[in-house]
Amino acid sequence: MNQAKGDTLATPVSARERIGEVDVLRGIALLGVLLMNFVAFASDGVMATKGQLEALPTATLDYWSYEAIRVFVGDKANTVFATLFGLGFYIQLTRSEGKPGFEARYARRLFWLLVFGWLNTLFLWVWDILNLYALAGFGLLLMRRWSTRALLLFGIPAALYSDKLQAWIVKSLSLPIPNADHYQTNAAVLERQAISQSGDYPALVANFAGWTWAEWIVGGLMAAWVVYALGRFALGAAVGRSGLFENVARHVPLLRRIAWIAIPAGLAGAVAIRVAAHGDDEGWKTFASICRSPVALMLAAGYCAGILVALQKEWGKRLFGPFGAVGRMALTNYLAQGFLYGLVMFGVGPGLALAGNIGTSAVVGISLAFFAFQIAFSHWWLARYRFGPMEWLWRWLTYGTRPQFRRHVPVAQIA
């Protein structure tokens, strides 16, 4: 199908032009996002009380499972996911260089991502990140002509910012910004459980909307996360400018050194943070929570470097290669994960209503099984279609023309 007149010089990215390593990293990051989101959602203060979780027969296993997820996955998965967004922006920018209409197309792309994100936030998954990425993406669009040095000078301190650091600043300066701690009391949790188990979907939506308004908007948490995301976007764009993904094999010695240093140092830091979190010293707890973001950046860099090195070997391609299909359908798979949380936790429709009755170990098992399904489904789907269903819709809305869907039709793909 013909593209709109203003986009005729903007050639969409074909499957051959995709960077396979980026798709693999994005797919692996999605597994981490699934694990951390689901574990956190089922944890104390959200959809379960501490007493309920401690009464489960799997309580000991749940405790160590939770700690393992926090150490190995927490904050690292979303760091990789956000950094890859910035990298993807840079790749699209360079491929559109000199072609008219890039800014307008990318703004439309971000606008529809914002729409998807707020629909997801209001009606399915209260902790959606798409709206964050859309807002931060507009910031990155304004930074598109910055030098690599400027991106790093902004990106590093911004990436070190976090909701925990903002909370400490607000408290230290006695700023008149309210918090939403009352939404995490036992009474609030039990109220959410009762609503979710009743199957009253409108009431459940209203409950989470109130929490979103109080914590996300009025409490300023969204602002902290936008800065957090934009910092990672800037770092991703800087990585793109480094030329790393133009020839990964050439950078293997550097990547190997990064992995050998960052992984053990990052894991040591992550363990120390969890030890401090369980201590009695409030000062150390605060310091540890502020250190979460820099430690996550270090460990995420180590993970990515190690995976990229492994992908240069046949064993690495066999082990990590299957994640690439999930990464190519990242939007579809991310949104589908929200349905899993609701199906397990809520009693709406066929929902299992397990809020307060399921521990971390069971959540991890369900998450791994569901992600295995997502890998299989993504491969099956992409063997027949050029992109995932939500990716197809996103491209249609962005470009204003409906892209061909089935693989047997010889047509260029839209990035």
Description:
By secondary structure, this protein is mostly helical. The chain has one domain. Helix content is 70%, strand content 0%. The protein is built from 18 helices and no strands. The protein has helices spanning 20-41, 50-54, 59-72, 76-95, 102-123, 130-142, 148-160, 163-172, 186-198, 201-218, 221-241, 252-277, 282-310, 314-320, 323-328, 330-345, 360-382, 389-399. The longest helix has 29 residues, at 282-310.
Index terms:
415 residues, mainly alpha
What's the count of strands? 0
Poorly predicted runs of 5 or more residues: 1-12, 409-415
Helix content: 55-70%
How many helical stretches? Answer: 18
Radius of gyration from CA coordinates: 21 Å
Q: What is the mean pLDDT? A: 90
Order of secondary-structure elements:
HHHHHHHHHHHHHHHHHH
Number of domains: 1
Q: Tell me the major beta sheet.
A: none
Choose one word for the global shape.
globular
How far is it from the N-terminal to the C-terminal residue, by CA?
15 Å
User: What amount of the residues lies in strands?
Assistant: under 5%
Content-based structural category = mainly alpha
